[in-house]
C-alpha cells in the first residue's frame, strides 16, 4: 500500500502559517461552549469555530503490548519514564470534533455510543438534530458507536461522509466479524445519505480528505483551512501522545497494516512539524489539540496551552 501526503494535497497553495498567530477564544454564532466545561473546548480557525468534544476516557493495562510492538522492555520503560508516565497503564481519550464553518455544523466521528457525544454537544450549545454533516474518519467501534441511538440515527438531519475504501472494506466482511457487524448495524442503514471520498476529496469548502491508510484500509485525516489558517484532524494516525510520536515505528496493536501505519505517521507528523501546523488527535489528552516538533529520529506532541484556548 502506498502512502502519499504532499504539501499541495494537504495544505493547498498558500503559505503555511503558525496557527497560534491569530487564534482566539471567541466563539462562532451557534456554538456557545460553557466557560468552565471539561468536555467541550472551542477555538477559532479563521472563520471556522472548532470544538473538541470529550466522549469519554478510561485507563487500560498492558500499555506496551498495545503501543510498543517491536520495542524492547527497556526502551519502552525509558521513554515512559522520560515523559513521567507509567509503562504499564495507558489512559485512553475519545474526542470527536465539531467544526462550525459558518454555514454548516460538521461533526467528525461519533464516539463510543454511550451518551458522551450528546453530553459534550450539549455543553457546546448544540443538539444532535442541528448537525449538518457527519464525517467518519474510519469505522472502528469507538468512531461509529454514536451514529445511532436506540436503533435510530443520532443525527437525523445530517448527511454522511467517509472514505470509499473504508466503507468498501468493512461492508464486505462476512457476518461474525465484530467491526463488520457493527458497520452493518450503524453505518449501512445510512448509506443512502452517505457520500464517499478519495484522497483530496472535499467534504465542504475548506475541509479536504487526506489519505493516511494503515490504521484501517481507508483511514483518512482531514485538512481544515480558513482565512489562511490550517489544522489537521489526525484521527487515529498516532494513538498515544508519547509512544506513537517518540517512536512512530513502534507497532500499535490496533493498526491493521503496521508498515503502512508507520509510513502514514512519519509523513503526516513530519509535515506538521516542518510547517508548524496544529493538529487535533482523536486519542490525545483532552482537549486533544497541539503541535508537533521533531525530536531525534521521532517527534514530540506539544499540547495546546493558551495558544488556542484563550
From TrEMBL:
Keywords: Hydrolase, Metal-binding, Signal, Zinc. Residues 1-28 form the signal peptide. Residues 93-283 form the Metallo-beta-lactamase domain. InterPro entries: MBL_superfamily_lactonases, Metallo-B-lactamas, RibonucZ/Hydroxyglut_hydro, TAT_signal. GO terms for molecular function: hydrolase activity; metal ion binding. The keyword Cytoplasm does not apply. CDD domains: OPHC2-like_MBL-fold (cd07720). This is MBL fold metallo-hydrolase. It comes from Ruegeria profundi.
Amino acid at each position: 500500500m502506498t502512502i502519499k501526503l504532499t504539501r499541495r494535497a494537504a495544505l493547498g497553495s498558500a503559505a503555511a502559517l503558525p496557527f497560534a498567530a491569530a487564534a482566539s477564544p471567541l466563539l462562532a454564532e451557534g456554538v456557545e461552549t460553557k466557560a468552565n466545561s471539561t468536555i467541550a473546548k472551542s477555538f477559532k480557525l479563521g472563520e471556522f469555530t472548532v470544538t473538541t468534544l470529550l466522549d469519554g476516557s478510561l485507563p487500560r493495562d498492558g500499555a506496551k503490548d498495545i503501543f510498543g510492538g517491536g520495542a524492547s522492555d527497556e526502551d519502552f520503560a525509558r521513554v515512559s519514564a522520560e515523559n513521567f508516565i507509567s509503562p504499564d497503564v495507558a489512559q485512553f481519550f475519545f474526542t470527536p470534533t465539531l467544526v462550525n464553518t459558518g454555514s454548516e455544523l460538521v461533526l467528525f466521528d461519533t464516539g463510543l455510543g454511550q451518551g458522551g457525544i450528546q453530553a459534550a454537544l450539549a455543553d457546546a450549545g448544540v443538539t444532535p438534530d442541528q448537525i449538518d454533516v457527519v464525517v467518519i474518519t474510519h469505522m472502528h467501534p469507538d468512531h461509529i458507536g454514536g451514529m445511532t441511538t436506540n436503533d435510530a440515527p443520532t443525527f437525523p438531519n445530517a448527511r454522511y461522509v467517509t472514505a470509499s475504501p473504508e466503507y468498501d472494506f468493512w461492508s464486505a466482511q462476512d457476518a461474525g466479524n465484530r467491526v463488520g457487524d457493527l458497520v452493518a448495524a450503524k453505518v449501512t442503514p445510512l448509506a443512502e445519505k452517505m457520500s464517499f471520498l478519495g484522497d483530496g476529496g472535499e467534504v465542504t469548502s475548506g475541509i479536504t480528505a487526506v489519505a493516511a491508510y494503515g490504521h484501517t484500509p481507508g483511514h483518512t485525516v482531514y485538512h481544515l483551512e480558513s482565512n489562511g489558517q490550517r489544522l489537521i484532524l489526525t484521527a487515529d494516525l498516532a494513538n498515544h501522545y508519547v509512544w506513537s510520536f517518540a517512536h512512530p515505528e513502534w507497532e500499535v496493536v490496533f493498526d491493521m497494516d503496521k508498515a503502512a501505519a508507520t509510513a502514514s505517521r512519519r509523513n503526516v507528523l513530519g509535515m506538521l512539524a516542518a510547517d508548524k501546523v496544529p493538529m487535533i488527535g482523536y486519542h490525545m489528552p483532552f482537549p486533544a489539540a497541539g503541535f508537533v516538533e521533531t525530536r531525534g529520529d521521532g517527534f514530540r506532541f506539544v499540547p495546546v496551552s493558551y495558544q488556542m484556548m484563550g
